[in-house]
């Protein structure tokens, strides 16, 4: 074990649930972050700093002036640059040992399976339902945990999805079944977002990802955690799979688990 490794991560190693073996697992982990906006930026910062060995960064967008209010990886000098390139440069300056893989394009039905298949866990830091559904279906088929968060105004929510394990765990589409009404759901670009809210939930995604990799703590899978920074009221809602879900219902039929309709959540995206 290199002296620099121990010195750099000594505060992690001192945590009973992590230790040296846990830190080695983080160093061996491969994490894919889809979306390098308000959620993806803090998630990437904390995961790189935590010692994740490989980070994949997916985003087809470029940095704009309006991003700087909440997307903390970028500087004014990065305006006009691809987000994946600017984010990778900032992360490598901080953690040179982290292997950064850039994907400066959209995730699509043609490339999602190939990309996701090479990672251990995926973070959904996107802002639209189409991509969320694609991530959910692809992660379920590939049996990869999906850590999903969304924010709006002062509010946010986070959940972990691994319905492929059965045991009464839902997938994202159990929580939000496809509907024409979803097109009317408000989004950050339409109604705004308080910058620190994205920081809170992006950081929670990083923490949940570490817990999933190390399999420590109380799993967030099967739960929806929501928080408003207006009154700092938090809710943790139990979720269940939908018996008619086109993505995961076969999993639960195979496992012969009783099904209950999922709580619809608080509708934040």
Task: Give an overview of the whole structure.
- The structure is a single chain.
- About 35% of the residues lie in helices and about 15% in strands.
- With about 270 residues, the protein is of the alpha/beta class.
- It has a single domain (about 5-255), classed as NAD(P)-binding Rossmann-like Domain (Rossmann fold).
- The protein starts with a helix and ends in a 14-residue tail after the last helix.
List keywords for this structure.
16% strand; 11 helices; alpha/beta; 269 residues; Rossmann fold
In brief:
The chain is an alpha/beta fold and about 270 residues long. The chain contains eleven helices and eight strands.
Would you tell me which CATH topology applies?
A: Rossmann fold
Main β-sheet, spatial strand arrangement: 3-2-1-4-5-6-7-8
Low-confidence stretches: 256-269
The strand count comes to 8
* CATH level-4 homologous superfamily: NAD(P)-binding Rossmann-like Domain
Tell me the domain tally.
1
The percent range for helix content is 25-40%
Distance between the termini: 43 Å
CATH second-level architecture: 3-Layer(aba) Sandwich
| % residues in beta strands | 15-25%
């Amino acid at each position: 074990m290199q002296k620099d490794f121990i010195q750099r991560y000594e505060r992690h190693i001192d945590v009973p649930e992590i230790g040296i073996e846990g830190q080695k697992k983080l160093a061996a982990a491969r994490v894919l972050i889809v979306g390098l906006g308000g959620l993806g930026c803090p998630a990437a910062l904390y995961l790189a700093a935590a010692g994740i060995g490989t980070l994949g960064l997916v985003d087809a967008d470029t940095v704009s002036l309006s991003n700087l209010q909440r997307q903390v990886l970028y500087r004014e000098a990065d305006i006009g640059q691809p987000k994946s390139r600017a984010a990778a440069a900032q992360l490598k300056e901080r953690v040179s040992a982290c292997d950064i893989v850039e994907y400066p394009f959209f995730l699509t039905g043609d490339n999602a399976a190939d990309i996701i298949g090479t990672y251990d866990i995926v973070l959904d830091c996107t802002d639209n339902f189409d991509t969320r559904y694609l991530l959910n279906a692809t992660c379920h088929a590939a049996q990869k945990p999906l850590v999903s968060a969304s924010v709006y105004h002062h509010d946010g929510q986070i959940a972990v999805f691994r319905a492929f394990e059965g045991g009464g765990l839902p997938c994202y589409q159990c929580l939000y079944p496809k509907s024409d009404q979803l097109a009317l759901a408000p989004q950050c670009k339409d109604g705004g977002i308080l910058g620190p809210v994205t920081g809170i939930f992006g950081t929670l995604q990083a923490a949940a990802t570490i817990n999933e990799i190390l399999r420590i703590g109380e799993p967030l899978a099967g739960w929806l955690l929501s928080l408003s920074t207006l009154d700092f009221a938090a809710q943790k809602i139990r979720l269940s799979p939908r018996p008619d879900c086109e993505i995961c219902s076969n999993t639960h039929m195979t496992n012969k688990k009783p099904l209950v309709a999922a709580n619809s959540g608080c509708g934040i995206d």
